Amino acid sequence: SQLFNIDLIRSQFPSLDLVVNDKPLIYFDSAATTQKPQCVIDSLNQYYSGGNANVHRGSHSLTGSSTRRFEAARRTVADFLCVNHDAIVWTKGATEALNLIAQSYARTNLSPGDEILVSEMEHHANIVPWQLVAEQTGAKIVKLPVDPETCTLDMDAFYQRLTERTKIVAVCHINNVTGTRNPIEEIIEASHRICAVTVIDGAQGIVHERLDLTRLGADFYTFSGHKLFAPAGIGVLYGKPQLLDAMPPWHGGGKMVEKVSFEGTQFSQSPTKFEAGTPNVAGVIALADAIHWFNNIDLIGAEQHIASLQKSLYQGLSQIPDLRVVGYQPGSSIVSFVIDGVHPSDIATLLDQQGIAARSGHHCAHPMMDALNVPGTLRVSLAIYNTQQEISQFIEAMEIACDIL
Ligand code: PMP
């Protein structure tokens, strides 16, 4: 991969040249979704203008090449995660992948009295599917608490609450409010000692680390393409093949069957049995193109760049009176903060007038907000295309906003 070069990176993202409210855009909301490099935009365009056809159906040439590219993309994702291609299931996103695990794996394996250990810092997408399946099966959700001072998981509580009743442990790789990186290696190892299945929500983690899921040993790992420079509407479920093979389908329809008759239906093997209906072929191919692009990035250099931006951001914000950074995680891509007596959305609106896109609110993490005893935060989330100059402009804009408020 090439050495990290911020100018070269930025030049590949046309949307970074946008003007918002008469100001050059400063995009600080990459944890919500990343901007897209030109090669990903071209990929979508090329697919629809030069190769659109349904996959795994019919025998004409276009469907053949579309199917080959679709399955090659599965291998690209599998190689990226260091797993076999039949362990990769296409979904609409992380949310759908987590619901698939809940409704297929958990619904058939949980009994009354079984426990699902879910961390308090989870995005709603890694809480609500467990609540739905707990209701259906009589299983119980056990909360894995967050230390409100450090915004990290309370690992003593984890070991206390991990018992022979625990059947599933669901935690995020990296949290979306503070950027906390959980000790997933330790969590997976401890969970496996009591034969609990681990579900790692990689929606935020996937873009900051190169992964080897075979070595990590997670049973399930999920992410969305749109936070990894790919389009929205495509996501990935990784599952250990022996788990996927034993799981029943959850959506019925075309493509996921070998033979349908009114007497009974024979399903395809996994992963196909989980992919009912026409898939997002363009999204799948564009995700593979995003990963090819991402594989060429010097990720260590990029992460050092992000960490140095995040440090300057933290130092700048620390000078602002009455501003409190929530659960600062050195080296992460996120800074979340509150200002006494000021609603985060009022700050976000004033920043928007300066062309700055930052996120205010609860970040789809009500339980974490409750644990931290804040109604919401203002969140700045950085990516490889942000610059020190943007950080300086942001701090100036914050000072102006604070004078107004
Ligand atoms: N988990 C985490 C940690 C997230 O940040 C998000 C997206 N905000 C999700 C899950 C859900 O992802 P999506 O909405 O793309 O399905």
TrEMBL record:
InterPro entries assigned: Aminotrans_V_dom, Cys_dSase_SufS, Cysteine_dSase, PyrdxlP-dep_Trfase, PyrdxlP-dep_Trfase_major, PyrdxlP-dep_Trfase_small
Gene3D superfamilies for the chain: Aspartate Aminotransferase, domain 1, Type I PLP-dependent aspartate aminotransferase-like (Major domain)
Obligatory cofactor(s): pyridoxal 5'-phosphate
GO biological process: cysteine metabolic process
Alphabetically ordered keywords of this record: Pyridoxal phosphate, Transferase
Keyword Metal-binding found: no
Enzyme Commission (EC) number: 2.8.1.7
UniProt keyword annotation of Endoplasmic reticulum present: no
Catalytic activity: (sulfur carrier)-H + L-cysteine = (sulfur carrier)-SH + L-alanine
Role description: Catalyzes the removal of elemental sulfur and selenium atoms from L-cysteine, L-cystine, L-selenocysteine, and L-selenocystine to produce L-alanine.
Protein name, per record: Probable cysteine desulfurase
Organism in which the protein naturally occurs: Veronia pacifica
